[in-house]
């Protein structure tokens, strides 16, 4: 009996050893193909596995390599360790699930097919990822090393990916077309289908970022609590946009040494805080905050060291600014309405600013409302060769004016402009110690007064101009002792000229339609020099010739004769009423060195003339009649030496005297008796 027992025990030991050896050499890959085939056929998982390691002696542990699930999940290694398998109870508990070098495309993920009832409940005690890549909707997270605890993705046969869990870990890089984060550390939980991160730290645009975060996918809401931005260099090629339906909330954000670079805004050295911000697509954010910055550039608007406050709602962006701008001081209250394309300047004050006008300068806002604008002691220098302008000591005050549809209009009956300058130079034209005052109503710009020093003389101007076509207006001008030399240099005329000019004008009409002009115009010139316009020599030559009968003269030949010498005109007086664009000249004359030339007739201010001119002797009688007709550029010229009665009737009785060096007596006789020049 003892021998039988020993043999039976030995046989059992041998069988156990043989079974252990057989199971130790068991190759799970032999079962992989039929098992995967069955799974793909009955569950539509589309799963593929490169290699399996599984020992029946340790049935709760499995290592799979080169795992693929559809086209949205793959991993180099996947390690599974079961804590409990209760097929009859339908509960499976996974103690550890490790995903190594995995990739998940969430935007391609599909619902997993229904699993058998004995897998109705699945709980994962610990899920670890190493070097995981996640991609969705333009976002990509790389190098994610995460740890999830207490996750139940399947309950009562339903998949619940956003079930409660705790999580922690690091992400090497998170990227989006307008966002780049790296070295991310996070710790938090998923609770009631919301991701709540108590700690989120990362590198953001070369700086640091820290916050607590709440993400609610159901309501599409992302909340950052007490975010801190430090030394970030924000760079945008286009304006950031939120996905449709999402809301971004910021509570008590702090900013330290931020910089912004974008096509529309550049700013550096930003410190400040945002008390709150709520941003939804298609509207301005509701926000309130304050900041200070070393500099900011918005299109052509440049601010140096300044402080600012932000108060924004969905329709209006409100800004309060105080600091330095254009080497001067700045205070501003601004409101921007993007849906209307409108900028409200509630208050803008610039003191001691040095402004620059650039060739490509433009104002991008189609609608501006200026409630109060005050510039004091400003300087302006133009870098545009087509606008050679400079201004020193400029002052400008504007209230209740609006610019829209390329038209100024008043916002109230208080709409007005006031200003002046110490010196204004336009090319070679210079004005000093000048001021102006103007008002605007619904139909007219009313210039109460523009006065100051212009062209080394004085000017006083007033009038009004219609805002709408045909822009009918009225002008009153008084100018005294204007220096023509400055005007000659500015015009770059073919013939340079100099002297002084005084002017008086009262005109009404449409600026672009000279035939509509009515009023009075008077010009007085003194000591006028005109290069290559030898009036004295030309008149002397014509008086010495025979024009006893009226004769047409070639105006081109006459012009050539005039260019043979220069003209000195001691005194000029042209005056008369203007009717239908015709300046009626009577009692007008030009006094040269040796001759007095009187004028009668009309000048068409649109570019023509119908004038009778006369070379006057010391008795006021005309001895040479000159007829000018047609256009200024192609005139008709006729000369005549009329017979004179004795005594002759005076043809001119005006204030311009006969020249002291003029020939006495009859001009024709005196000229012909002059000795011939060698």
Automatic annotation (TrEMBL):
This is AsmA-like C-terminal domain-containing protein. It comes from Zobellella iuensis.
């Amino acid at each position: 009996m003892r021998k039988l027992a020993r043999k039976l025990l030995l046989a059992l030991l041998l069988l156990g050893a043989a079974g252990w050896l057989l199971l130790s050499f068991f190759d799970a890959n032999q079962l992989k193909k039929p098992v995967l085939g069955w799974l793909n056929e009955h569950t539509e998982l589309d799963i593929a596995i490169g290699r399996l390691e599984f020992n029946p002696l340790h049935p709760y542990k499995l290592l799979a390599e080169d795992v693929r699930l559809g086209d949205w999940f793959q991993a180099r290694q996947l390690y599974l360790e079961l804590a409990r398998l209760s097929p009859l109870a339908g509960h499976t508990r996974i103690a550890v699930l490790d995903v190594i070098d995995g990739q998940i495309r969430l935007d391609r993920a599909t619902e997993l097919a229904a699993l058998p009832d004995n897998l109705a409940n699945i709980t994962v005690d610990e899920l670890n990822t190493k070097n995981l890549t996640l991609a969705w909707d333009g976002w990509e997270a790389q190098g994610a090393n995460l740890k999830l605890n207490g996750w139940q993705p399947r309950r009562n046969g339903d998949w619940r990916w956003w079930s409660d869990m705790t999580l922690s870990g690091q992400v090497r890089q998170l990227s989006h077309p307008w966002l780049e984060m790296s070295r991310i550390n996070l710790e938090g939980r998923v609770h009631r289908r919301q991701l709540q991160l108590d700690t989120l730290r990362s590198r953001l645009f070369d700086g640091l970022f820290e916050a607590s975060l709440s993400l609610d996918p159901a309501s599409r809401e992302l909340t950052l609590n007490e975010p801190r931005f430090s030394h970030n260099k924000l760079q945008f090629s286009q304006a950031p946009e939120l996905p449709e339906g999402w809301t971004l909330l910021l509570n008590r954000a702090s900013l330290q040494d931020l910089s912004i670079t974008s096509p529309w805004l550049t700013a550096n050295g930003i410190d400040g805080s945002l008390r709150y911000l709520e941003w939804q697509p298609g509207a301005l954010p509701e926000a309130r905050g304050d900041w200070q910055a070393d500099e900011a550039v918005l299109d052509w608007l440049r601010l140096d060291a300044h402080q600012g406050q932000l108060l924004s709602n969905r329709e209006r962006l409100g800004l309060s600014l105080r600091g330095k701008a254009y080497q001067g001081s700045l205070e501003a209250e601004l409101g921007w309405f993007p849906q209307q394309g409108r900028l409200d300047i509630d208050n803008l004050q610039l003191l001691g600013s040095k402004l620059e006008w650039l060739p490509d300068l433009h104002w991008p806002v189609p609608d501006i409302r200026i409630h109060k604008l005050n510039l004091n002691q400003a300087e302006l220098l133009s870098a545009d060769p087509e606008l050679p302008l400079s201004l020193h000591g400029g002052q400008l005050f504007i209230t209740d004016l609006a610019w829209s549809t390329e038209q100024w209009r008043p916002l109230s009956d208080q709409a007005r402009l006031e200003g002046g300058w110490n010196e204004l130079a336009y090319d070679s034209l210079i004005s000093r110690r000048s001021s102006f005052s103007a008002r605007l109503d619904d139909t007219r710009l009313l210039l109460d007064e523009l006065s100051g020093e212009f062209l080394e003389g004085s000017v006083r101007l007033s009038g009004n101009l219609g805002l709408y076509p045909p822009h009918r207006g009225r002008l009153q001008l008084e100018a005294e002792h204007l220096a023509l030399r400055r005007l000659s240099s500015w015009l770059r005329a073919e013939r340079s000229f100099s002297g002084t000019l005084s002017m008086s004008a009262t005109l009404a009409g449409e600026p672009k339609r000279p035939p509509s002009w009515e009023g009075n115009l008077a010009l007085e010139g003194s000591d006028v020099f005109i290069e290559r316009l030898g009036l004295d020599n030309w008149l002397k030559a014509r008086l010495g010739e025979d024009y006893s009968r009226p004769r047409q003269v070639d105006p081109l030949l006459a012009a050539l004769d005039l260019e043979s010498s220069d003209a000195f005109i001691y005194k000029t007086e042209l005056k008369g009423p203007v009717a239908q664009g015709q300046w009626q000249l009577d009692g007008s004359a030009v006094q040269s060195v040796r001759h007095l030339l009187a004028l009668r007739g009309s000048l068409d201010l649109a570019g023509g003339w119908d004038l009778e001119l006369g070379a006057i002797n010391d008795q006021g009688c005309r001895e040479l009649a000159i007829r000018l007709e047609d256009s200024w550029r192609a005139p008709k010229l006729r000369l005549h030496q009329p017979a004179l009665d004795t005594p002759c009737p005076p043809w001119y009785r005006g204030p311009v005297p006969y020249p002291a060096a003029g020939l006495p007596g009859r001009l024709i006789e005196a000229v012909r008796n002059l000795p011939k020049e060698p």
